[in-house]
Amino acid sequence: MSNDSIKKTVIVALGVCLVCSILVSTAAVALKPRQEKNKKLEKMVNILEVGGLYEKGVDVEKVFAEQLEALIIELKSGDVLPKDKYGDMLQPGKYDIKKVAKDAKYGEAIPGKEDKAKIKRKPKYMLVYYVKEGGKRTKLILPVYGKGLWSTMYGFLALDMDLKRVKGYTVYDHGETPGLGGEVENPKWQASWQGKIVFDDNDKLILEVIKGKVDPTGPKAKYRIDGLSGSTLTTRGVDNLLKFWLRESGYGPFFKKIREASSDG
Ligand SMILES: Cc1cc2nc3c(=O)[nH]c(=O)nc-3n(C[C@H](O)[C@H](O)[C@H](O)COP(=O)(O)O)c2cc1C
Predict the structure, then answer these.
(1) For residue 147, is pLDDT > 70?
(2) Three-class SS of residue 209?
(3) Atom of ligand 1 nearest to the CA of 176
C-alpha cells in the first residue's frame, strides 16, 4: 500500500485517534480517585476556613477531627438526628449534599413558591458542624447553596453561638464568571461578612447582600454586605440563598430549637 493512498491515510488517522482516546480515557479513569480526594480536601479546607481554623501547612484532617463536631439535623423539625439513624448516606464522612438532595428518601422537592434559592430540591437532613475551641462550642457552620447567574453556588456560613453575627462565609463550588460573579470566592469580599448582624431582636432575618455599596457610616452597615460590582444577578443569588436557608424553609426550625435550649438554661 502506497504511503500516499487514501486507505493508508485513513488507517493511520484512525489509529492515532484510537491511541489518543485510550490514553485520555485511561488518564481520566486513573486520575478520578485523586481528583475526588482533592475535591474532598478542598471542601474540608473551606470548612476550616469558614470556622477560622485554617492556617497554611496545618494537618487538615487532624484539625478537622479535633476541632469540629459533626451533627446531622432534620431540617423540618430542627432536631438533631441520633447516630443510629444515620444509615449509610448520612454518615458525616460520606455525606454528599448533592446526592442527599436528589435521593428519594433523604431529599425532597421544594414547592416553586418557596424555592427562593432556586435549587428545586434540598436534603431533609443536613450535615452541620460546631467549631470547638478549648472544649467549648464556639461557632456553628451551616452549608448553604443557591442559584447564581450560571450555576448553583455551594458554600458555608458560620455564625456565633448566639446566632447573632456572621463568623465567616465561604464558597467551595460555583460556575460564575471569573472576575464577575466568580468574585463570590474573593477572600476580601468574604472577609467583609465578618461580624455582620444576622437577626434583629425579634429573630427576624436582617442580613442582606445589596446591589452596590453599603454606606459604611449608615445604621444599616451592621447587617448589609456590598454587592459584587457588575454582577447583580450573582449578588441577588447570594442574597436569595440567605433568605432561603436562614428562614423557615431552611434552618429556621433548628435555630428555634437552639434558642429554646439556650433560654431554658
Ligand atoms: C460574558 C459575561 C459573563 C457574565 N457573568 C456574570 C456573572 O457571573 N454574574 C453576574 O451577576 N453577571 C454576569 N454578567 C452580567 C450580567 O449579564 C448582567 O449584565 C449583570 O448581572 C447586571 O449587573 P449590573 O446591573 O451590576 O451591571 C456577565 C455578562 C457577560 C457578557
Answers:
(1) yes
(2) strand
(3) 8
